[in-house]
Design goal:
alpha/beta; Rossmann fold; N-(1-d-carboxylethyl)-l-norvaline Dehydrogenase, domain 2; 3 domains; six-stranded parallel beta sheet; 40% helix; 13% strand
């Protein structure tokens, strides 16, 4: 029997993936209402493939708020998402409290693995307390889930990275058996190395994102097209076909920002140099505001109040999270305009955004607007007929950072179309000959 403690996004995904690999699972959370809803197939997350996986393997997973059920498990994963505060710092209080509350309930010889992302040094600091608190043997494992692709990543991981107090010892048999079911490489390392490994992965990703965004902006300025350059990079063996080369609006979500802040904190504490991290943050915030600059260029008059259609609040597709979302920052910055908005999953606070009206469909949100901004590249937006959009949108400006709409079709019907990595549209706003409204 394998247990999972903490049923946030991480715990829900990994517990179900474990059941799908043929193990019997106990999924524990102290909230009985949540566990009852999960048992009935009603989950607080929305991930592609999750509902289908649950329907197929629900017989192997038991959701419970009874912590004594953990005593049945020979392997237990702590799988609570670690939230970040307003400064993008990890708040490990809830995880620590959960460990303290449940670790004494584990049976002697149980193998306990913390999946939650923790800051370097956390496991070592907790070691003495855990020895007195629980008979279990604790390890750390790095999780690398991605919102919107979490089921895929959990079922087909690239590798597992395990931190051990003594990396010379073989991993316990129950943990080895769990690893074997996923058929991927297992890297065993020291605790601090494992704690830093996820941060290292994210920082390399950030460096690619920042480089891509920097060069894409140069393309916009000089008339080059970033899409034409990408194949040259993908065919370079030093970079490769899987490099992250799609321009974006900076770093969204919470995990990447958290890891940048963590490295800055470590550098300050130990006297190392991390100025490049500050540069990445600055680059990210500059690119985050790209769409804001396009609107200010299109509607330069401070007295003019435009009607803007905004499609998408979430920081990325297939999630309802708006943490560090470029769309949220855009709507905060453009308070002098009226905004008609839509998102198929995410929600916003009506009190914070009184200038924003929410509509049930993207075409309804676009009706009568002077410009459209596609801020989250939902696939449902790509399927909308451009000709229908042309009928409802009053203006002619489409700002589509991720190129979710068909650029050629947009230009064919008369839209002035702008995406990341290509020359921006003219600074002067053309006027409709009939009514003087902005095109």
């Amino acid at each position: 029997m394998i247990g999972f403690v903490g049923l946030s996004h991480l715990g829900l995904i990994y517990s179900l993936a474990t059941a799908a690999k043929g193990f019997d699972v106990v999924a524990y959370n102290h909230d009985g209402t949540l566990t009852a809803q999960c048992a009935a197939g009603k989950f607080p997350i929305d991930e592609p493939g999750f509902s289908e996986l649950f329907d197929e393997h629900r017989a192997r997973i038991r959701y419970t708020s009874d912590e004594t059920a953990l005593a049945e498990c020979e392997l237990v994963f702590y799988s609570l998402d670690v939230r970040t505060n307003e400064r993008n710092e990890s708040d490990l209080g809830a995880l620590t409290a959960l460990i303290r509350a449940t670790a004494p309930k584990l049976s002697p010889g149980t193998i306990a693995v913390i999946l939650s992302q923790v800051s370097p040094g956390y496991m070592r600091q907790l070691r003495t307390e855990l020895r007195e608190l629980s008979p279990a043997d604790f390890y750390y494992q790095v999780e690398t889930l991605i919102f919107g692709r979490a089921v895929e990543r959990a079922m087909q991981p690239e590798r597992f990275m395990v931190g051990a107090y003594d990396r010379a010892r073989s991993l316990p048999v129950p943990l080895q058996a769990w690893h074997a079911a996923f058929k991927c490489p297992v890297l065993v390392m020291g605790l601090e190395s494992a704690e830093l490994a996820k941060i290292a992965i994210n920082l390399f990703l950030v460096s690619t994102v920042a480089t891509t965004n920097t060069l894409a902006e140069i393309c916009e300025a000089i008339g080059a097209d970033w899409n034409e350059i990408v194949p040259a990079l993908q065919l370079d063996r030093r970079i490769g076909p899987h490099a992250y080369l799609k321009p974006g609006l900076g770093i969204g979500g919470g995990n990447l920002e958290r890891d940048l802040v963590t490295v800055q904190s470590l550098a300050a504490r130990h006297g190392t140099e991390a100025g490049i991290v500050t540069a990445w943050q600055r680059n990210s915030r500059h690119r985050r505001d790209w769409a804001i600059r396009q609107i200010e260029r299109a509607f330069p008059s401070k007295e003019h109040q435009a009607v803007l259609a905004v499609w998408g609040f979430a920081y990325k597709v297939d999630t309802h999270s708006t943490k560090n979302s470029p769309s949220i920052e855009l709507m905060r910055a453009l308070r002098r305009h009226r905004i008609r908005a839509h998102d198929p999953a995410a929600q916003i606070d009506a009190v914070e955004f009184p200038h924003v009206t929410i509509f049930s469909s993207p075409l309804a949100a676009a009706e009568g607007a002077d410009a459209l901004l596609v801020m989250t590249p939902w696939s449902s937006y790509a399927s909308l007929p451009v000709k229908e959009l042309r009928k409802v949108l009053r203006g002619r400006i489409i700002i589509d950072p991720y190129a979710i709409l068909d650029e050629a079709q947009c230009r064919d019907v008369g839209f002035e179309y702008q995406r990341l990595g290509n020359r921006t549209f003219p600074k002067m706003v053309r006027k409709n000959a009939d009514d003087g409204t902005a095109l």
